[in-house]
Amino acid sequence: MMSIQTPAEGADTFPLPSRESDRGRGGENQTNSPVGADDTLLCVTTDIDTALAHSAEQDQNFASIHHATLFSRLKKILPQGALLQVKEDLAPYECDGLSAYRRIPLAVALPEDEAQVVAVMKACYEAGVPVVARGAGTGLSGGAMPHEQGLVLSLAKLKRIVRIDKYSRTAVVQPGVRNLAISEAAAPFGLYYAPDPSSQIACSIGGNVAENSGGVHCLKYGLTVHNVLRVRVVLADGDVVTLGSEALDSAGLDLLALFIGSEGLLGIATEVTVKLTPKPQFAQCILASFDDVRRAGDAVAAVIAAGIIPAGLEMMDQPATRAVEPFVKAGYDINAAAILLCESDGTKEEVGDEIARMKAVLEGCGATEIRVSQSEAERILFWAGRKAAFPAAGRVSPDYYCMDGTIPKRRLADMLIAITELEKKYGLRCMNVFHAGDGNLHPLILYDANVPGELERTEAFGAEILKLSVDFGGTITGEHGVGFEKINAMCEQFASDELRIFHGIKAAWDARGLLNPGKAVPSLHRCAEFGRMHVHGGQTAFPEIERL
Amino acid sequence: MSSTTIDEFRQQILQRQPLRIRGGGSKDFYGSVPSSMQESNLLDTRMHSGIVSYDPSELVVTVKAGTTLQALELVLATRRQFLPFEPPRFGDDLSAATIGGAVAAGLSGPRRATVGALRDFVLGLRLMDGVGRELKFGGEVMKNVAGYDVSRLMAGSMGCLGLILDVSLKVLPMPMHEATIGLALDQQPALELMNQWGGEPLPISATCWADGLLMIRLSGAEPAVRTAQQRLGGDLVEADQAAQFWASLRDGQHAFFAQTSPHATLWRLSVPSVTPPLEVGGSSLIEWGGAQRWFHSEASAEEVQTLAHRCGATATAFRYAPDRTQVFSPFAPGVLKLHQSLKHAFDPHGIFGRGRLYPEI
Amino acid sequence: MEYSGAVAFIRKSDPLMETHLADFIRDTSTGKEAEAILRTCVHCGFCTATCPTYQLLGDELDGPRGRIYLIKQVLEGETPTQKTQLHLDRCLTCRSCETTCPSGVKYARLLDIGREIVDAKVPRVGVDAALRAGMRNVLPRAGVFGTAMKLGQMVRPLLPRAIKAKVPPLTSAGPLPDTATHSRKMIALAGCVQPSMYPNINGAAARVLDRLGISMLHAGSAGCCGAVRFHLGDPEAARDDARRNIDAWWPLLEAGAEALVMTASACGVQVRDYGHLLQDDPDYQHKAARVARLTRDISEILTAESARLQAILTDLPPPDAASKQMAFHSPCTLQHGLQLRGVAEKLLTAAGFALTPIADSHLCCGSAGTYSVLQAEISQRLRDNKLAALLGPVTSSRRPRTIASANVGCISHLAGGTEVEVRHWVELIDRRLTGQV
Ligand SMILES: Cc1cc2nc3c(=O)[nH]c(=O)nc-3n(C[C@H](O)[C@H](O)[C@H](O)COP(=O)(O)OP(=O)(O)OC[C@H]3O[C@@H](n4cnc5c(N)ncnc54)[C@H](O)[C@@H]3O)c2cc1C
Ligand code: SF4
Ligand code: SF4
Questions:
Q1: Min distance A191 CA to chain B CA atoms (Å)
Q2: Residue among A177, A399, A526 with most chain C CBs within 10 A, to mutate
């Protein structure tokens, strides 16, 4: 039986390195390097190796740490009411947007500025207590789910827009600022922040950086990684580093790219500089209906093959349109088997030209109805339905489970058909909402947790979709992150050598493994167990987690 | 055949001797050269070449590291697609540069400011680490957030972390139409215009100011290019001439880049685009909407680095530096520590490209 | 399970809102209703983005999703303390979250249920208890409040600043039209607070309706709609208010009055809920439902009559450039409660006023009925933010001359924080029609 515990010695396995020797300064810590004379420059340290071995091989245990001194320290650091400690207050923090996985944290800290974040990090580092960052808690992979021996560090109060500069087209914001709030603040200058996750009304820029979030327009305008210039990061030990710069390039390795998408495992973002994009003069959106999902899937590839990069290219199947239409009244054709939303933006002439070309392609692919937005209000309404699609699932089913694989576009139709088969196999319904243009799938498996066994079937259903995504040459997660939820699926996608590199990267930033432990990268031990489980078959994804 | 090449690579790595990874050698002039570099053995990637897969409707090409840029771009052109970051080729023989070298150097061409850098188009890669393990990161799809983004970390790593074997890149359709205009302007007003226009939805794909002339390339649908051309004014440059101009700029062949004196270094500064004209004594060449500045100077590296630091920039002694022990901007101690530990994770024995990026790694 | 050391315990299996309600409530109709609401929440967090208290305080516990969680705990049998009570108290019941929620969670209903249980389990003490009792008894009684208010107005020049802010300058209802003129008749809500504080609002509504050929009637014995007592945790008293009003209105409705006109959107929300409030009262359920159906906000009535209104307006000279600059604050009860967004705004624009665009127009001004007294600090911060959004910089040439709103609570609350005139929008329409602007 699998256990996520290391031996009971707990904290003893993580001797507290003095601050100087941490992350490898200091001569006597060096291993013997086989190469030439000037290798004193190569700081190779035993504590990294130790940490590496631990985090790679085993999940860690933080159980035997004494918290009293930590708490009294935190109380001094934080303002009144900004440290939550009793269960009544902690329970609402037990999960993020994926509420199937929940843990009550040790405590929740609500700092108000970077100085408090630094002080909290230092206190936790010295106490050896894990820290889980939390933005708006809209994540869909359990990334911000607490650690039961750890502190939840909420960045929600750091929500100041520090500066918007029209001339250099940049915004400097604190991590708790909502994605949409940046665009709203930039709007008077004719600028906006391009990545627009469907959750943009609520999700924080810090969370976006941690997840490398995409959006419905990222086919043309890129993901978070393409639109962030600079991040200030508080490291696990409380040191502050700046990654990237307001210039386009910065010196050395691209640590900014490495940090973006690191799911709160490498550091805490406390200030983010984003690139702002000029608002296109004009945009129009096509709403195309198809009576067959395969034809809709093929149309997606056809649009791209025609040399068009639409500003957005999304697909929703019938169950999805039927769920949102009553709330949003976006005017979706609920009789179509699937609809595509294809957007074009640019100058008026450009858009007219591109819309005409897309229309021709879509007609050629057998669209049964094509509508072009006739006003900005109508265009926004077309998108409103798409952006509300996940929560709207709550209207048609008590529970849903959102998947996030990405596959090559040419396999879209195959995937849809495979999902239909799986629906039969598991006796569950699935509604499909795809960022079709970049092959990112969001099948929402609908289930009712009150019905015994449905969640287990849902998980098995989901696992099959992820496996198919990998088999089709894709990935298990396009934008929602691995978090806690897909940690076993990581063992499908990566071999142990690759995982070792991941653990090496982790150790370079956070040698003691205090940031968001147990997320994003599985230990080799877990994968070994997972593999064995696979062979035996039939077991559920997280046997160590108690089921109610 | 390829697997034997890879076995050869592995054998070389397993000897645990310092290695300098090299493709066409077009960027030999670039990067730091510590005194120990001469002792390094060469690892030549050119045996490992060819396109692994290319599906135009996926907008993705996967290619072996030793493939030349020229060969790759030719294949893409047959499907009217291209590498949007316009990787420079450099060197006397413009056909020598390889894609592996381009990725490792991480340099981007004139389109950088408007469509993104090389690293923005890296989707995945396969590499061999310092103990000979073959590893695969990222993939062939546009969006992938499983695991840390090692692929992008490799872009610009100057061969100091591992040997890039194959790389998957996002490609784009070639623009339907292109036009270049020239405007006679002094540096200050040219900078102002570049920044102002950068904030407007115009189809600008490249900018360059030098010697009182601002060149602007417009790319996109024909009507959009035409409207923009009317809006910006200036004189239309003849198409062939324009193409030649942008290529020479990209490949470092433009006359501005030629050595001016035996003691002068060609500096490249990456600055916030709104930085006012730099006080550098001689003439400058400006690209990327104001965000990249080139100049020749006999000033010491310290002086230039101080100047760069003052304006939030990084400076690279790009070419002709008399001393190449450290050509890149130094960074804060915290960041240096991260570099060292990352190096250790990929290359525990410290054999790859030692000193090429920084003397410390 | 093999665990060594402390148990790594992750509760997993049920999605959040698969609830396990405690025995005391599981099989009641309230319990079933609460469970159904909880089950629609998918924990997406969208609602936190538009919640005024979450935006101000940044604590999950002060946002709708957190409050839903707190209520869920209570329904599952956890004993609440003053902590839970405080976070529920801080809710403005502005229902912005309901407008945002894509999953259709009936938050306000759940909150009512939660508050009732929590208040029963956590006794109110000290100042809090005294304030609540006082307001429950004084505010809803037009007579008592009126006397207190008149006194206040007469001594206004002598009052200290803080109290002065809440006592508006004395105004009269203005000349009232004869109610017998027209065959079309509608009933006004006499209300409690509004007639004494702002008699001109109903006066203006009566004059505007008169121009449109409608007479506005008053039913003598009707009074407070019941919202005050309802939101102070006394639903039974609120039901009494509703029954008394229905009794007062019924004869007029039977005599052919076509609608109940609401000039305070908060009252509109309450009266429109009478059907639900009295659903278990066999004597009143049908009458209550009819009253609810006939309840109209004044903006709905004027929109229905907009052709006539426009005909009158076109004959008038346009307002002068300075006095037409205006900012409209849409009360939560109007935009989220009654879901009437952009309706009054459209009427004002049609009447020739120029409305300034307002950032975060979905956010509450902090008035929220009795909230401004009970949660004074949050309330004031919200008011300051709202006024800043409405008025913009003092130096701006487009700084509005007037703030218009649609609910007495918001009007007096906002007026307390600015020198700029704050009015009900129907008063401004009245001014236009009577040639004052
Ligand atoms: C309805 C719905 C639709 C969605 N649509 C999309 C979509 O279209 N595209 C998309 O990409 N995602 C989408 N998401 C997922 C989610 O909104 C994004 O992942 C978002 O970026 C999370 O932001 P957050 O502020 O809520 O972060 P949280 O959920 O609070 O945290 C997410 C992760 O980031 C870490 N973190 C948070 N803040 C920081 C910080 N300051 N420093 C370091 N680490 C930090 C946390 O530890 C955690 O691992 C959707 C979610 C929902 C509920
Ligand atoms: S009613 Fe208003 S204050 Fe209360 S939770 Fe909803 S949005 Fe927040
Ligand atoms: S928006 Fe609705 S579904 Fe989402 S958390 Fe709020 S109440 Fe729940």
A1: 7
A2: A399
Residuewise pLDDT in 10s, chain C (437 residues): 222 222 223 333 334 445 788 989 989 989 999 999 998 898 999 999 999 999 999 999 999 999 999 999 999 999 999 999 999 999 999 999 999 998 899 999 999 999 999 999 999 888 788 778 777 776 666 555 555 555 555 545 444 454 555 555 656 888 888 877 899 999 998 766 777 778 899 999 999 999 999 999 988 788 889 888 888 778 889 999 999 999 999 999 999 999 999 999 999 999 999 999 999 899 999 999 999 999 999 999 999 999 999 999 998 988 888 888 999 999 999 999 999 999 999 999 999 999 998 888 999 999 877 788 888 899 999 999 999 999 988 777 778 989 999 998 899 999 989 999 999 999 999 999 998 88
In angstroms, the separation between the Cα of residue B189 and the nearest Cα of chain A is 14
Q: Specify the CATH architecture of the domain B3-173+340-346.
A: 2-Layer Sandwich (3.30)
According to DSSP, the residues that pair with B208 across neighbouring strands are: B215, B287
**Residue A12 DSSP code:** G
Residues 6+ apart with CB under 8 A from B243: none
- Walk me through the domains of chain C, giving residue ranges and CATH numbers: 3-121 (1.10.1060.10), 143-302 (no CATH), 317-433 (3.40.50)
User: One-letter amino acid identity for A75?
Assistant: K
For residue C138, count other CB atoms closer than 10 A to its CB.
Answer: 14
Q: What is the DSSP letter of B278?
A: P
- Cα separation of C125 and C111, whole Å? 21
Question: Which residues on C lie below 8 Å from A93 (Cβ)?
Answer: 60
Considering chain B, tell me which residue range(s) the CATH 3.30.70 domain(s) occupy: 177-250, 259-319
CA C340 to chain centre: 12
User: Residue A251 and residue B16: Cβ atoms within 8 Å?
Assistant: no
Whether A246 sits inside 8 A of B149 (CB atoms) is no
Spatial distance between the Cα atoms of C363 and C385, rounded to a whole number of angstroms:
9
Q: C125 by DSSP, 3-state: which?
A: coil
Residue among C394, C404, C398, C393 nearest C429 (CA): C404
**Interatomic CA distance for residues A470 and A415, integer angstroms:** 12
Phi, then psi, of C68 in degrees rounded to 5? -60, -40
Q: CATH 3.30.465.10 region(s) of chain B?
A: 3-173+340-346
| Domains of chain A, each with CATH number or no CATH | 68-154 (3.30.43.10), 161-278 (3.30.465.10), 281-485 (3.40.462.10)
| C-alpha separations of A129 from A16, A106, A110, C217 in Å | 12, 10, 16, 69
Query: Where would I find the beta strands (DSSP E) of A308-439?
Result: 312-317, 338-346, 369-372, 399-402, 429-435
Our separate counts of H helices and E strands in chain A read 19, 19
Residue with tokens 């990161």: B137
Report yes or no: C14 at the A interface, CB cutoff 8 Å: yes
Nearest CB to B152: which of A222, A254, A476? A254
Domain B177-250 is in which class? alpha beta
Check whether domain B259-319 has CATH 3.30.70, yes or no? yes
Burial of C82 (0-12, 13-18, 19+ CB in 10 A): middle
Six-digit token pair at C404? 């218009």
Predicted ipTM? Answer: 0.97
The CA–CA distances, whole Å, from A195 to A484, B177, C307 equal 24, 27, 44
C186 backbone dihedrals φ, ψ, rounded to 5°: -135, 155
* Total residues belonging to chain C: 437
Encode B51-82 in three state secondary structure.
EEEEEHHHCEEEEECCCEHHHHHHHHHHCCEE
DSSP summary character for residue C169: P
The Cα A275–Cα A228 span in angstroms is 6
Element (H, E) at A234: strand A228-234
